[in-house]
Amino acid sequence: MLIVTIVFLSVLYRFGGVDGRSKSPLIEDGEHGDPKPINKAAECIFGNQRRELGQTWVPNLGVPIGVLYCMKCECIQIQRKRRIVAKVQCRSIKNECPEPTCEEPALLPGRCCKTCPGDRFNPDIIHDVIPPELSENEEKSTKHYAALLTDRSSLVLRNDNDEPIPNDNKNNVIATGRFTFQKKNLYYSFYISDKAARPRTLQFVNSMGTILEEHILSDVGGLVNSVYQNATRKVCGVWKRLPREYRRLLKEERLYVVLGWGSKEQSEFTLSGQLTKYVALGTELFSSLLEPSPGSNMQIMSGAGGTAIVSISTVISPSIHLAVVFNGIFLPEEIADVPVNVTLAFEDKKMILTEKVYVTKPASELNVVEISSPISQADLRLLTRGRLVLSVSSMSKQHSLKLSGMVMTKATCELFQTPLSSSGDRDTNKYGTSGLAWVFLNNEGSLVYNVQIEDLHPEQRPVFITLVDISNKKRTELEDLTPSFIDNWANDTIDRLSPKVLEPLYSGDLAVNVASEKETSLIKGRLTPKLVADARDVSAPILLKREDRSLPTSAVGMAWFSVDSDCHIHYDVSLTGMGNSERLLELSLKFLPMSAPDAPFVTRILDEFKGNQAEGSPVDPLSKDELVRLDSGVVFVKVKDKYTRSTLMNATLKQVKVPQNCLPHIDNYVSGSINGEEAIPHTQGACFHERRFYKEEAQWTSLSDPCTMCFCQNGVVKCDTMTCPETNCPPPGRRLKNPGDCCYTCTNSTLEDNETAIPKMCTLLGKTYLPGTTFHPFLIPNGFDTCTLCVCDPLLLQVKCTRNGDEKLCCKNCPSVTSYTDSENQTMYSDHHTVVEVREDKNANEKSAERILAEGGCRNPYNPQMPYRDGQKYHPVIESLGEYKCVTCKCQQGQQSCERLKCTRAMCKMLRSRSKNNHNNGNNLNLASTNNGNTVETCCSLKQCRFRRHQRRRNNSNGQ
Ligand SMILES: *[C@@H]1O[C@H](CO)[C@@H](O)[C@H](O)[C@H]1NC(C)=O
Ligand SMILES: *[C@@H]1O[C@H](CO)[C@@H](O)[C@H](O)[C@H]1NC(C)=O
Ligand SMILES: *[C@@H]1O[C@H](CO)[C@@H](O)[C@H](O)[C@H]1NC(C)=O
Ligand SMILES: *[C@@H]1O[C@H](CO)[C@@H](O)[C@H](O)[C@H]1NC(C)=O
Q1: What are the boundaries of the signal sequence (predicted)?
Q2: Which of 167, 757, 902, 925 could bridge 782 with an S-S bond, Cβ 3.0-4.6 Å?
Q3: Relative to the CA of 341, which ligand 2 atom is closest?
Q4: pTM, full prediction
């Protein structure tokens, strides 16, 4: 029974799931393994929900199966060699049902076991045990950890055979990490020795060396794609949603981090360290990575290193605080109360600070010393500009046992951002000016800034852009960004940064102000810190502009989007000045293949939120089509009011880098090209032709050639070009071809004289023709019917068509009637009425045409005297073919809707076997008359059957 259920579920989920992660949650993953990096090892995905380790639930499979009350699922840990992975395990609990205590137990709704009245014990009631949400305190408080990664780590890494992994760190590479735990996520950042390439992997492990989480940091060659990481020379990332158990390990300082170098096949060396809390981290403004100084005794100092956490305070008079974490400068005989010399110097010349401190009990892995000292403003400036060297040395061997390093920008990967918003007063912001700004400190301690200002009216120019300290009422202007303002952007770097900027920047009291000559503050915003990872680790955010005019003019937003190597999209949206904060908002993306008329679009809802912030990544990965459009199409970001559906904010999403492995490998797919039509991905239900889109079933004249007509069927464009029939006008030379016409028309004096009068026209199948025009009718799906010649009779203004009797070229059993007309006087249809229903219904004939139309009937273009009645089904009549059986129409309330005969598998099979026998080329237009009674051959071409097969195969593969 259990096995049956599991197989059934797996089938169901195979179709529901999209990628490897959400594949059948009830099937054991085979040992042959995951092809993808096990990035999200610490959580389970079931259906469309993330489940934390340790969570249990009753599976709900949705319609039509619903809840399986006799199954219990759990997100469990599995140890697979050196890794712990999360996995969904479901089992039947039917066998655990107790023996009923009464004769007629009942199965109550929502239960698995039969019970008797009064039964208390309910083994089958499992509640969705959702681990308690973080308490508000936990949610808000940010916790800081640091790690020193050296060869002196106590952690022993073992390979799959439980042997210690040899570590070949020839160049004495070391690293230091900072970790910020925020909203269940652990953000990490590292400074690594300059001499090392970017590490390939990062692992979080427990004290046994078992891998709990693993991230791939760089592709082959150690390259980094991130502008931020490149400019700061940091390694940045995030471990999202730590399960409770791992949060506990972190809190108890039992979590380790391991950086690995080398290739996937061949590991070169690793560095590891323990995540430790230090009080000083809460106020850290600068960091330092300490390496053995030149001239050190590398026998004693092999694999040694250190890091410093540097804070400053300017409350009364400037002072500096150093917490130095280090190892490796002790001689074997130094075991207690060992003095070390800590110095801070400017380019080996000027000693700024030198202090002797004692290490009570030297340890081989971690020693911590702390120092506080006053510092002059001038030295503070040197510190801010990254000019100071920190060192710690042994007192007994000052030169050979010494660690030193530059004091640099804080190791944490963070940037500071703000939307730029007006006060909301319509008078100060007449033109809806808005903007955004973000800044960060690079490797040299310079401030990199980007400011964007949009909808600035010429009369508001020039503008003045400044960085303002708003920590007190004085509002001190600290830096002027105006000189770099061009083309709505101010992008530049401030090299000689004033120390006065850093403190308000880190404490959230630095604002960007944009003033005009009239307004001291046209738009402004306070820079808030954000940790760099996922969505924010891209080159630039986008500006969300107010779209709904009922929003205050102050409404503005900024949003970051990225796509990771697993093809998941990440977003981070910040809004401001929106007014009503209780409104439920919806964040969505609207994907278009390109900017073209009538382009078909798909919309994906990313989030629903209240307030000013939304951040995350949907469980459902993007489809290939969405990824292609993100890469080379047009995507709009929308923030809507969930209930009124009004679009409040809107932006165009550009420059989202989609990793190559996420894009389909189609030979002729040219990334970024929109010139070649072949580059437009095939879009269900729409056709792309000559730079615009057409709906399924549409029919149009080519924009470039009036003789070419096209139609869209099953997303495929088919075109046919007509050769103009010869036009013989009675007085020769009276031929006329207007631009936009395909064929010559005959003119006569009456027409020319009355040019201003309403032009006289014939109409057929929704197209109009000038009097005298000769043409071949255009019939879906086959194209121009060259066997039929139609002419717009200049006198009667009726289209008359004649069937070409050429049996060889056109038809074997041509209909006997050769002339058609939609004349109101003559009814030439009577001979060959094939619209049976009309004839059968005698009453219809008696009713006047007007009456039928008034009662919801539909016009009959070929016989206006005989409109179709409301509700009537019929085949449309086409000149050369008579009744066109491939299409069935229905008249409903004055509207006709038509449907093409579906080519069934049986029909296609029949066609194929017949065409084999006949050596018939299925690509030829097949215009055999319906009168020979064979709808299969007429309506379904071999090509259509081939398309049908292709379509079916595609649908199947999409569903897996
Ligand atoms: C990384 O930085 C270097 C120099 O700082 C620059 O030349 C290079 O273009 C940058 N690469 C990226 C991907 O930003
Ligand atoms: C500490 O080191 C500095 C620089 O090497 C040196 O000038 C100073 O004298 C040392 N301090 C002591 C107490 O040895
Ligand atoms: C400023 O930087 C942004 C983001 O990198 C870029 O899109 C924009 O083109 C730049 N503008 C100028 C004028 O350099
Ligand atoms: C807002 O969205 C529409 C499409 O829905 C688009 O045509 C328009 O250009 C967008 N505006 C901006 C600023 O992107």
Answers
A1: 1-20
A2: 925
A3: 1
A4: 0.74
